[in-house]
Amino acid sequence: MKKIYFDNAATTPVDKRVLKEMLPYFSDDFGNASSIHSFGQKAGAAILKAKDIIAQFLDSQPEEIIFTSGATESNNTVLKGLFSDYKGHLIISAIEHPCVLETAKFLESKGVEVNFIKPEKNGIIDYRKVLKAIKKNTRLISIMYANNEIGTIQPIGKIGKKLKEINQHRKNKILFHSDAVQAAYFLPMSIKRLRVDFLSLSGHKIYGPKGVGVLYVKKEIKITPLMHGGHQENSLRAGTYNVPGIIGLGKAVSLLSGLAHQKSIDKIKKLRDSLIQEVLKIKGASLNGDLDTRLPNNANFLFKNVEGESLLLRLDMAGIACSTGSACASGSLKPSYVLLSMGVKQEDAHGSLRVSIGRDNTQQDVDRFVRVLKKEIKKLRKFSPFK
Q1: Does 267 lie in the same domain as 215?
Q2: Domain for residue 170, yes or no?
Q3: CB-based contacts of 30: which residues, under 8 Å, 6+ apart?
Q4: Does 99 participate in catalysis according to the annotation?
Q5: Are 232 and 276 members of one domain?
Q6: How many domains does the chain have?
Q7: Among 254, 282, 311, which residue terminates a domain?
Q8: Which residues have C-beta within 8 Å of that of residue 337, sequence separation ≥ 6?
Q9: Is residue 360 part of a domain?
């Protein structure tokens, strides 16, 4: 029986072209990129090439690209780096990834004032509420580009535009950060269009390797490093370069353009639309988040009188991998904080299922998923105490 992977929001498989690009840097071109001899220079040159590729993708400058271990480190670097004195005011959304939410809560425990902006019922943040929350001591606004659970796309460009107007009349400029991990494969990523000062990416969401990411830092902005040590990345991110990972990330980013990439997105969206149409025919099924303003690969459902974890396990036993929410929160039996913040009742929030389609999926996968889903939901509802 062929297994079906419908959890691409958690991670994607490494593209064979990416792996091929990485392989020489594990054993043949193994030099430390910080060394001045020829081995190191070869690795260093490959890193600079990756920076050029990513800078072009983001419409930024190569020196503004900082390599990290992933978006968790990137996000922590921005928030902790700007609030290293534990003073000032931070605005984030209530539906941020745990690595932003928990960092904000940590800063709050140390004295930073934090506003958590709840989304509307459709899972989209009202940009006017973000702007209304601004105070004299506001130092940073951090709003994700697209939500990792329900896939809703947030008005980053609009916030950035309005913030630029507000900053013209402020002595202490408010900086703007966006966790763009889920958006990178599908949405426009021009820094000039988004008007952000910081942006975070991860390789493993775009068919690149795990354990490597990017932090874009606008030129001339100074933040306190998260880690101290060597001189790497203009002393902002100490530590030996993960050369194979960086090369892989650069290659993965280089594939995010052109006709083939657009065809991939179109195919994924067509499958996702087909899946949503069929699943919503199930009695008691509803879609979490806005139908239109969402990522092309995401479908997040709520099933009345069904326990999400039980459904997830039954699907897995049938050879279908899905999720109930963020992979970083999968060890928790609590209902999704994203759904609760949207006003979903706690007992209903337990019945959620996230399906995130990838470029290797087929219509046959969708058809089989729907058949199995209907069967398993029928079984689970027989034992539901809420019938």
Answers
A1: no
A2: yes
A3: 39, 43, 243
A4: no
A5: no
A6: 2
A7: 254
A8: 94, 95, 101, 329
A9: yes
Contact 254, 53 (CB under 8 A): yes
Answer with the one of 186, 219, 254 that is the final residue of a domain: 254
User: Which of 19, 23, 48, 328 is the catalytic position?
Assistant: 328
Provide the whole-model pTM. Answer: 0.94
Q: What whole-number distance in Å separates Cα of residue 246 and Cα of residue 301?
A: 35
Residues 225 and 297 in one domain: no
Looking at the structure, tell me whether residues 295 and 371 fall in a common domain: yes
Q: Find the CATH number of the domain harbouring 179.
A: 3.40.640.10
Residues 203 and 267 in one domain: no
Bridge partners of residue 116, in order along the sequence: 92
Determine the structural domain holding residue 228 and report its residue range.
16-254
CATH of the domain at 271: 3.90.1150.10
Rg (CA), the chain: 21
Looking at the fold, whether 301 and 239 belong to one and the same domain comes out as: no
Alpha carbons 206 and 212: distance in angstroms, whole number: 11
What is the pLDDT tens value at each position of the chain, 387 positions in all?
A: 789 999 999 999 999 999 999 999 999 988 877 778 888 888 889 999 999 999 999 999 999 999 999 999 999 999 999 999 999 999 999 999 999 999 999 999 999 999 999 999 999 999 999 999 999 999 999 999 999 999 999 999 999 999 999 999 999 999 999 999 999 999 999 999 999 999 999 999 999 999 999 999 999 999 998 888 888 888 788 788 999 999 999 999 999 999 999 999 999 999 999 999 999 999 999 999 999 999 999 999 999 999 888 999 999 999 999 998 644 544 556 789 999 999 999 888 988 999 999 999 999 999 999 999 999 999 998 876 555
Are residues 302 and 223 part of one domain? no
Say how many C-beta atoms besides its own lie within 10 A of residue 298's C-beta: 27
- Considering the domain architecture, whether residues 76 and 24 belong to the same structural domain is answered as yes
